[in-house]
Amino acid sequence: MPARINSTDTFDAIENECMFTRSALKADYDANALLSETDGWLGQVDAARAKDREFRVADMEAMASRSIANVRLDISCLAFGKDLLYAVGDRKAPRFVGFFPIAPTRWVKQGLDKQILGIKGWLTVNGDVELDKHRENLGLRVAGASDSQVAVASLAPARGLNWQMRRDLADAMTRARDGLHRALAELAEEKNLPRDWPDAFFRIEERESPPVQPGPPPV
Question: Does the pLDDT of residue 210 top 50, yes or no?
Fold first, then answer.
C-alpha cells in the first residue's frame, strides 16, 4: 500500500509523490490507462500551496510588524528614561522610580503586553515636563504596538483554517492514492501480474541500512 500523506509533509514532498506515481504510470504500458486518475493531483497541491503561502505572508507581516513596533517602543522608552534621569539626577528619585521601578534597560525587556500597559499608565500622568516632551511619540508607538498585537491575535482563526486545509489535502491525496492502488491491484489480477506490482507505482522511503558489525579478526 502507498504510504499515507501527512498534514506535516512539505508541499515539495507531496508533489514529488505525485510526480513519481504519474511518471511510473507513464512508464508501464499496462498502467497507462490509469494515468488520467492522477490528472488533478498536482493541481490540488498547487492550490493548497498558494493558500498556504497567502496565509504565511499575512502571518509574517503581522509578526514583523509586532517585532518592529516593539523595537521602536523600546527606543522611545529608553529615550524618555535618559531625559528623565538627566532631569532628576538620581535613579532612586521618587519621580524617576514612579516611571521606572527598575532600570530602563531592564524595563523594556518585559513582555510587550506589560510594556504597553505600563506606558498607557504613564500617559495618564499630567504635569511631568520630561514626559510631555515624549508624550506624542510614546502615544504613537504604544498605539502601533497595540495594533500589532491585535493583528497577530486576529490570525489565530486563519492559522487553524490553514492547518485544516493541509489536513484536508493530506486526507484527499491519501484516499486518491489508495484508490489508485486498488485499481492497480485489480489490473494486476486481470493481467496475471505479481501481487506486489501495484507497489512499484509509489515511492518507497529509503532507510539507511544498519551499520555492519565488525566480525572477528582474521586468524
Answer: no
What's the whole-number mean pLDDT along residues 166-176? 97
Interatomic CA distance for residues 209 and 35, integer angstroms? 33
- pLDDT attached to residue 204: 74
Per-domain residue ranges for the chain? 65-154
DSSP string, the chain: -PPPP-TTS-HHHHHHHHHHHHHHHHH-TTTGGGGGGGTTHHHHHHHHHHHHHHHHHHHHHHHHHHHHHHHHHHHHHHHHHHHHHHHH--TTSHHHHHH-SS-HHHHTTS-HHHHHHHHHHHTT--S-HHHHHHHHHHHHHHHHHHHHHHHHHHTHHHHHHHHHHHHHHHHHHHHHHHHHHHHHHHHHHHTT--TTGGGGGS-----PPPPPPP-PPP-
Burial of 138 (0-12, 13-18, 19+ CB in 10 A): buried
Would you tell me the crossing angle of helices 156-190 and 41-88 to the nearest 10 degrees?
A: 160
The x, y and z cell numbers of residue 167, run together, are: 489536513
